[in-house]
Amino acid sequence: MFLASALIFACSPQPKEDTKNTAHYLSNRAPLVQTPYLELPIGSIKPKGWLEDQLKRMATGLTGHLDEVYPEVVGARNGWLGGDGDGWERGPYWIDGLLPLAYILDDEALKAKAQTWVDWTLNNQAESGYLGPIPFETDPTPEPGIQKGPREDWWPKMVMLKVLQQYYQATSDPRVVEALTKYFHYQLRELPQKPLDHLSFWANRRAGDNLLVVYWLYNITGDEKLLELGELIQKQTFPWQTVYTNSENDLQHDNTHFYNQIKTYPFDSAEIATITLSKLPGLHTVNVAQGLKQPVVYYQKSGDGDAIAAVKMALKDLQTYHGQAQGMYGGDEPLHGNNPVQGIEFCSVAEEMYSLETMIKITGDMDFADLLEKITYNALPTQASDDFTSRQYFQAANQVELSDRLETSYETKNHGGTDFVFGTLSGYPCCTTNMHQSWPKFVQNLFYATSDGGVAAIQYAPSEVELLVGQGAKLRLTEKTGFPFREEVNFELELSESSRFPFHLRIPAWARDFEILVNGQKQDVDTKDGIAILDREWKSGDLVKLRLPMELNSSTWFKGLVSIERGPLVYSLKVTHDEKAKDRGDRFRAFTEVYPTSDWNFALSQSDLENLEDVVGIKETEWDGSYPWNLENAPVELHLSAVQLPEWTLVNGAPQLPEKAFSKISKEEWEGRKKTVTLIPYGCTTLRITEFPTLAIE
Predict the structure, then answer these.
(1) For residue 316, what pLDDT band results from cuts at 50, 70 and 90?
(2) Contact at 8 Å (CB) between 365 and 509?
(3) CB 26 within 8 A of CB 12
(4) Cross-strand bridge partners of residue 469
(5) Closest CA to 463 of 63, 49, 169
(6) Which positions ≥6 away from 551 have C-beta within 8 Å?
(7) At 395, is the secondary structure helix, strand, or coil?
(8) With 0-12 CB in 10 A as exposed, 13-18 as middle and 19+ as buried, what is 469?
(9) Using the 8-state DSSP alphabet, how is residue 329 labeled?
(10) Count of alpha carbons within 13 Å of 535, Cβ hemisphere only?
């Protein structure tokens, strides 16, 4: 069955011309810049195969049952349900992932859980327009582990704005438009006296989320006051674009958490001029992940192309100064450099994915799409357990022991050494509630409509989408693929009537010699900015085959350490392990430590890296398309030679390379000591070495 027309058409119908293709979905009103890609209603895109299994594991795991596992925070006492308990970010964080999951899976039980939060929020809006937990008349009694306030802080409201936006995209409930209109008019009145950071600095760092929903509502209602509000929000937001383009300087911060002492609005321009992404200690890692999208969100109003260039500069600097091979960056609260044992916070993964998804739709820039692909298919799967009942607060490119003796992060003492172990409340609980948005929103961004009545496949995974194309024909597009482990992506088109429309296919930067076939016939298609467009008359039953050859490549990281990549995947040493349950009876609850049972301290040959296609064996294991993200089910392996480095040992559980590691080896010694090692996709690992030392063979 095709989606009901009420959900298919734009929330605010656009005039339709009879003579040419037109947008069937919500698009930017003037004066906002027109965007190349339009988001589809939630529920239009359905995951299949392993991706559907991933979402179902979330439904039976923490995402579907967090209120039972963590009732003291997201249970009935939560302020977003009218209770006297937690009233800050964690409740909305959870629903920000639960709600899209519920509607993508069409799971009535999960919908009902999310509906309770939505209904309370909509039904209890103050006459002033205020949304959210009812402020306390007197300061509440503190309770460990519960964030009761400040309830009027602008920041947690921004998460609920995203929830309400998604709810409207799924249901078209008119209460959302009414409530958000009242709330944004309330903001317009209040912000001059109570700026974004009047209760905490988080809102001024993360206000891109607020601005995004303001522009979305403007596109529905055309309310000019929303553009006025947008300018006010932009004025009070931390000047990310300026920071991204600041010149380097020698200033070093003594305070590890200096980012929470930066002057509030109105910002000190001299102070802002000293802030760069290169610093150690640096800006707050999650704020950086969320702040990436802010200049691009405002670009819709400003039309300033420098905003996009600034964000690209920021991404380059993050890779240079803090980057790791899986696409993320070292940031265990503050930015912490590019040593591969430094932690990467799960919230940063979730929020950078959302920022990239936002920027792709606005700009059509496939550099953002390539990075999203890398993070999703490498960093994301490894940080939660297979059954989605526990997670790591921090992950790292090189981790061969996960225990409470690790001391590599800034937060070690604050978190009782539990930063890297698998648990529900280990490390810091924010990720327990914020991790749920990652996979559902990725599904929601597999496909887009185009402004000229077409369809765009931007990320590849087994899935199905239904939408209107051309002059209003209904299209069901079924994608069958073993991607990211296999090179072939197949699409089958089912149309209510033959129709002419463009079909956009992203060609990843790593795919040099791609091939597109339509009904078995090779197409001569040029790419522009990473997109191949098939513009033709389509009929039901048409088949499109995309081949993306995956070549072996190496990349260089911290102090010359090297990683091996193939297509969208980064490969890591396969390290077997044992698990040990531990419960210290403290606020971090029970957790699982992981210890290696196989050797891990290997170095690669520099000469081999120059001839990877000749020296690396590629083995595609038997795989039926089911859940792939563990050692047992890894669908592909790489085999190559390496030698162990006895001097490379653990330092309090971390694989820290000694300062004077060997750099050379004789040919005879290499031949005598070399072993064949197995590398598997990063996302399939728990313990791993991803960034390897190398030896020159003499």
Answers:
(1) very high
(2) no
(3) yes
(4) 473
(5) 49
(6) 510, 512, 566, 567, 613
(7) strand
(8) buried
(9) B
(10) 10
Report pLDDT for 662: 75
Region of 299 on the Ramachandran plot (φ > 0 left; ψ -120 to 50 alpha; else beta): alpha
Residue with tokens 């010699």: 513
Q: Are 236 and 265 in contact (CB under 8 A)?
A: yes
Cα–Cα dist 495/477, whole Å = 9
pLDDT digits (tens, 9 = 90+) for 387-440: 999 999 999 999 999 999 999 999 999 999 999 999 999 999 999 999 999 999
Angstrom CA distances, 370 to 22, 99, 465, 506, 564, stand at 28, 26, 21, 9, 17
Place of tokens 């380097």: 248
Cα–Cα dist 546/569, whole Å: 18
Task: Give residue 49's region: left, alpha or beta (phi > 0; psi -120 to 50).
Answer: left
pLDDT above 90: percentage of residues in the chain: 95
Q: Whose structure tokens read 């039904």?
A: 123
The yes-or-no verdict on residue 17 having pLDDT over 70 is no
CB 325 within 8 A of CB 555: yes
CB 86 within 8 A of CB 79: yes
C-alpha–C-alpha distance, residues 460 and 380, integer Å? 16
> Is residue 192 reached through a cis peptide bond, with omega within 30 degrees of 0 on the bond before it?
no
pLDDT of residue 3: 42
Question: What's the burial of 599, exposed, middle or buried (CB within 10 Å: 0-12/13-18/19+)?
Answer: middle
Please, how many CA atoms are within 13 Å of residue 655, restricted to the half-sphere of its CB?
A: 27
In this predicted structure, the answer to whether residue 14 has a pLDDT above a threshold of 70 is: no
Query: Model's pTM, two decimal places?
Result: 0.96
**Block residue for tokens 């609260």:** 333
